[in-house]
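Posting this for the archive.
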Amino acid sequence: MWADVVGQEAAVSQFRRAASPEGSLAQAWLVTGPPGSGRSTAARAFAATLQCEQASGCGRCRACRTTLAGTHPDVTVVATDKLSIAKEEVRALVMTAQRSPATGRHRVVIVEDADRMTAGTFNVLLKSIEEPPPSTVWMLCAPSAEDLAPTIRSRCRLVTLSVPSSAVVAELLQRRDGVDEDLAVRAARAAQGHIGLALRYATQQGALAAREESARTLLSLRGAGQAVLAAQALVDRATAEAKEHADLVAVEEKQRFLRSAGIEDGKVPPSLRSQVRQLEEDAKRRQTRLVRDVLDRYLLDAHSVLRDVLSRQLGTGSELVNIDVAPEIERTAAQVSGQITLGLLEAVQGARERISGNVPPLLAIEALLARIAVSLR
């Protein structure tokens, strides 16, 4: 059950002790860790261990297999790709949490990206976290404990995951996904410990090459006009990628709704049109979230490139993350000072914060790339 939770030995040990007959099982857990560290994977593995017929997380029994497949009747998982988790979704979870298990020993409720709940949503959840039924276990996943309201995190047992090493991620890609060793190593290094991103680089054609080309473009910027064009191209690409995914999900959700309502000809009666409009609004919010996620991924890549530059300037001797653009990194390191590079690293982090704070993405990216272009002249 725990084979895919890599590089998290301390956390796995804590979960296993809690699930054992002699362990102390908390009824509310907060699993924190950086993106890609395996928060949701660890939460699902723990849920499967709690439901396991052998009480060990064997991975072979029906309870383990159905939990991992997302079909266990007593394990509820909420994941969102929208800007926030709505109060209505949390109210439904609270009602689910009050029910006794149907077949297993526990009713487990997993909330991925719990940091996307608003203050009002936290209030809806608080009572159920404080006084859950004896058989209910809540599992909240977030990047850090500070992302949740103090009233929520103070009532949860904290498990903190770390960033897995590139070597561990590469081994997982080879063992689980059959990725070639050289490609697995390159993808894991480029992903900087983000398991999902490493899998994308290793399996999606052109993804790793596009990342390398973006790094070269970043280090070749020399003028404000060039920076503006690069920013526009980047935002356009992110919007197109997000729209493609959001449209696909929207079509699937609408078809599912029409089937559940018994509508075969596509003609929605007036009484149901408000629900269809809600689906359309959800699709727009999903696209906005995805655009931000794609741009944030680019900014993290840009941060890694500049960090490689600073590493060479300081002579740390550490291995480059962006080994395929090593000549460009060496050249940039020789052209500018470490102080300038440090300022650019801070500017990248500032751009991430502005985008998460609802500044128009194009403005934030333009300002960042223009500053990089001027600094690298």
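The first strand starts at residue 28 and ends at 32. The longest helix spans residues 273-314.
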